[in-house]
Amino acid sequence: MKIKWLILPIGLSLLSGCTTENQRQVEETLAPVGEVEKPDTKNEHNEELTEEEQAHLALIESLPEDASSDDWNLLLVNNWTPLPEGFEPNLQEVEPEKSVDTRIVEPFKNWMDAGQKAGHQLYFASGYRSVERQQSNYDRSIDKFKQEGFSEEKAISKTEEYIAIPRRSEHHTGLAVDIVDQQWIADGNGLTPDYDTQESQHWLLETMADHGFVLRYPEGAEDLTDIHYESWHFRYVGKENAMFMTEHDLVLEEFVALLKEKEAN
Ligand SMILES: [Zn+2]
């Protein structure tokens, strides 16, 4: 692949927090954009950069041009980053009692239709979940463990093995979907990592980026996501971002951090 090196506009840091529209204007007016020589291989202290540092800079410079860490489809919710206060999802029902963000209805439906055409009977297990519902599931589980004789502390830790802490579930965003196939469920299975033994899961992995989705909690990324491997949980990020993340094997935490690094310079 041919890598295009871009000179980042000087003064972009002054505008951090502005819209991408503004950034684009600045790039058009200030920045000589195009194919230029490789960026300086020395840092500000004039020290030679290691190969790893150079690769990191190259990765930042190849990020999708229009992507911003503030974009709606890159909203990050995890155990360190609760859902923003006052967040109001804009939802549309795609199946009875199952909703997703209005903006992902079309890509999601297109993906599911493509699955059908490829011969997979997919099952949409879960989409949006309200904070209230998460809280009541969470509280009920803690009560249940306490009734079984566990201490408050133990009841909480046992609950959190299976149930996300309210406000820290990505399902609150309306941008996450849990998908398995109907036969898998009919055979008595649930949302378990070994769903990745199924052909339909392989198909989902192969096609997700084309439809703007990524596997949100891949195996081996537990330290970055703080969530165990989930072979069934997909997250909409938009096609260009999904392609980039898949190609470079990045989870959303890493991708957003790279964008923020770019935006800070
Ligand atoms: Zn999920």
Question: Could you describe the 3D structure shown?
Answer:
Helix content is 39%, strand content 12%. It has a domain of 134 residues: Muramoyl-pentapeptide Carboxypeptidase, domain 2, CATH 3.30.1380. The strands form two sheets. The chain has a four-stranded antiparallel sheet. A two-stranded antiparallel sheet has the order 1-2. Helix 4 crosses helix 5. The chain has 265 residues and is α+β, with helices and mostly antiparallel strands. It is globular. The chain contains ten helices and six strands, in the order H-H-E-E-H-E-H-H-E-H-H-E-H-E-H-H. The N terminus is likely disordered. Bound molecules: zinc ion (ZN). Zinc ion binds next to strand 4.
Biggest β-sheet, characterized? 4 strands, antiparallel
Q: Describe the global form.
A: globular
Q: What is the CATH C level class of the domain at 75-129 and 169-247, in words? A: Alpha Beta
Percent strand: 5-15%
Helix content: 25-40%
Strand arrangement in the largest pleated sheet: 3-4-6-5
> What string gives the helices and strands in order?
HHEEHEHHEHHEHEHH
Ligand set: zinc ion
Number of helices: 10
Runs in which pLDDT lies below 50 for 5 or more consecutive residues are 1-37
Q: What structural class do you assign from the helix and strand content?
A: alpha+beta
Question: What is the CATH fold-level name of the domain at 75-129 and 169-247?
Answer: Muramoyl-pentapeptide Carboxypeptidase, domain 2
Separation of termini?
Answer: 26 Å
CATH architecture tag of the domain at 75-129 and 169-247: 2-Layer Sandwich
The multimeric state of the shown protein is: single chain
Q: Can you count the beta strands?
A: 6
Radius of gyration: 21 Å
Mean pLDDT: 86
